[in-house]
Structure formats: C-alpha cells, structure tokens
Design a protein that fits this description.
Helices cover 52% and strands 2% of the residues. By secondary structure, it is mostly helical. The protein has a two-stranded antiparallel sheet with strand order 1-2. Helix 3 (37-55) crosses helix 6 and helix 13 (287-293) crosses helix 14 (298-309). The longest helix has 21 residues, at 109-129.
C-alpha cells in the first residue's frame, strides 16, 4: 500500500488504542520509494488514459460530471497533479465498490491492478515531493470569543467588544475557529474599528502609564477609585455593606457602597478583649497575635489593648476598663 493511502488508513483506525500504539511504533520504520514523475507521465499516457476513457468518462466527463467529478480534465500528468485529492477519492470509491457502478462494464483483475497501482505510485511520489509542506495555510482572524478573551487579558476589564459582531459560522469540521469559515467582510472590518474605538474610550491615562476602566468618563473613573477605597474601609465596618458581595466596580456600585453605615463593629473586639484579658494584661505585645487568631484588625485591636492596660487611663474609659 502506498504512503498516502497508508496514512489515510491510519487516520481511520485512530480510535483503537492498540492500533494507535502500533502505528506510532512502526510507522517511522516503514520505507517508501517513489516512482519518478517522467515514468508516471509515460505510464499515464500509455495505460491510465485508455482505462479512464473506457470505464470512467461515460459518467465523469466534462458534460456528465456525476457526483461533481470530472476526470476528462486530466489529459496529462501535469493536469492530474493539480488535484491529488481527487485520486484519493477515486481509490476509496473503487475499493468501496461504488466505481464503476455495478450496471456498468467492470475492470478485469489485471486492469484494476494497473489502475490502482498507478494511482498509488503517483500519490506516493506526490507525498514525498511535498514532504514538509503543510499546504495552504489560511490567515484567519480571531473568533468572537477569542477576540473578547484577548481584550479581557490585555485590559484586565471585562468588556464586550464583539457584541455587535455577526455570529461565527462553523465549518464542515464543526469548529468555529477554522480559517476557511472565518470570513472578513468590509462591514466586519468597520465593526472591528468601532470596537477598537470603544475599547480606547475605556483607557485611563495615569502618571504611571495606562489602565482600563469599565467607565468611560472622568466621573466614572473617580467613582471607581472611591468605590475601591470604601470597599477596603467597609471590610472593617458594620452596616448593610453593599460591597459585601461586589467583586468589581460598575457605574452604579458607588451608590450601593454609600449605603454602608461606616461604623466599626466593636462586638468582636470587646469579646476578644474580655476572653484574653489576663493574657493581654501580662503581655500587651501579644495583641497582634490575638487579633490574627480572632481575625480582627491588628492595629485597631492593639490600640484598644493599649487603652485597657494603660497605667493612667482616661476618665472616659476608666469605667469601661473596670467593667472588663
């Protein structure tokens, strides 16, 4: 079996793990020798053309083209070399018994052997002549999803630049990122330009460089920074913290963040002071450790501890300390 046909057989059995292993192990050691193209050309004129005219052209000529297959156009080897996939298909159809049709004259055993033998020799020579050539490489664009994720990675902001793009179509393989299916029309080019302008409107110039924001105005940018500040502050305060479940700023986030009471919740701090009172009086420096264990703010807890163990507490806090 020829090199090109053997490869097509290998592809058809890749679902079998055992055959996959054997293919990987044995395939590199299989040797192939190619028939020179001058001999293939002479044999084509001498043997193949008469067989094509006798058994094939009644159904696959310029006029008939049954199954959209025209073999009459291959009047020479040079013409045949322009469509090697056609010859792979011819072999498959002959081996499946579809060509010639059962009601048509059939090739004899010798004729069939010469016919398939020439095709296999030709495909071997073609494969070796083009070894290392990946074929036509399509310059494709990013799919809508790839483009959106790329913008996310570059800006760090979850924008939706492809929302006005047409839906990507799937190619024959069923994938949406195949180059042949990734059309680029003038209208789509304009949509890319519009998307780029919108992305640029989210850029914020800073003394250190450029950052991107979900907002597009100076007010949005200021509100975003205020929201981040209030989010940090809200972690250590009580109230209906609108930022408790908000992980990213949006143009309405600041209004929600303003609903926080802004008061420190003293209950866990007082509870920790009472629970570790003896320990803190003996070793005030352990306040940071106690705060970490109780998941409290260390600086604030150390400040309260200092007021508790101070030699001269203020008149306002004396009674509080005595009660503790």
């Amino acid at each position: 079996m020829g090199f090109a046909l053997l490869w097509s057989r290998i592809v058809s059995v890749l679902r079998n793990p055992c055959l996959v292993i054997l293919t990987v192990v044995l395939f590199p050691f299989v040797g192939f020798s190619a028939v020179p193209f001058p001999k293939l050309s002479a044999d084509y004129q001498k043997e193949m053309l008469p067989l094509l005219k006798k058994f094939c052209l009644d159904c696959h000529s310029d006029e008939e083209q049954e199954g959209e297959l025209d073999l009459e156009r291959f009047g020479s080897l040079e013409a045949a070399r322009k469509a090697p996939k056609v010859w792979v298909k011819v072999v498959e159809m002959m081996e499946d018994g579809e060509m010639p049709p059962k009601k048509k004259p059939q090739l004899s055993v010798a004729e069939r052997k010469r016919f398939l033998g020439w095709i296999e020799d030709y495909l071997d020579a073609e494969a070796l002549a083009n070894a290392g050539d990946p074929g036509r490489v399509v310059l494709r664009r990013l799919s809508n999803a790839e483009y959106t994720y790329t913008i996310h990675d570059l800006t760090g902001v979850k924008l939706s630049p492809a929302r006005e793009f047409p839906v990507d179509g799937a190619a024959g393989e069923g994938f949406m990122n195949v180059g042949d299916a990734m059309a680029m029309s003038p209208a789509l080019v304009q949509k890319y330009l519009d998307a780029a302008k919108e992305i640029a409107s989210h850029a914020v110039l800073t003394p250190d460089g450029i950052r991107f924001s979900l907002g597009t105005s100076r007010r949005d940018w200021a509100d975003e920074l205020l929201f981040e500040i209030r989010t940090i502050y809200d972690r250590h305060t009580s109230g209906t913290g609108a930022t408790d479940k908000v992980y990213a700023w949006d143009p309405s986030a600041l209004d929600r963040a303003m609903n926080t009471s802004g008061r420190v919740d003293l209950k866990p701090y007082i509870a920790a002071l009472m629970m570790h009172r003896d320990r803190l009086q003996k070793d005030p420096a352990s306040a940071a450790t106690v705060a970490r264990e109780a998941k409290l703010n260390p600086k604030y807890f150390q400040k309260l501890t200092g007021l508790l163990v101070a030699d001269k507490p203020s008149l306002l806090l004396r009674r509080v300390r005595d009660d503790l």
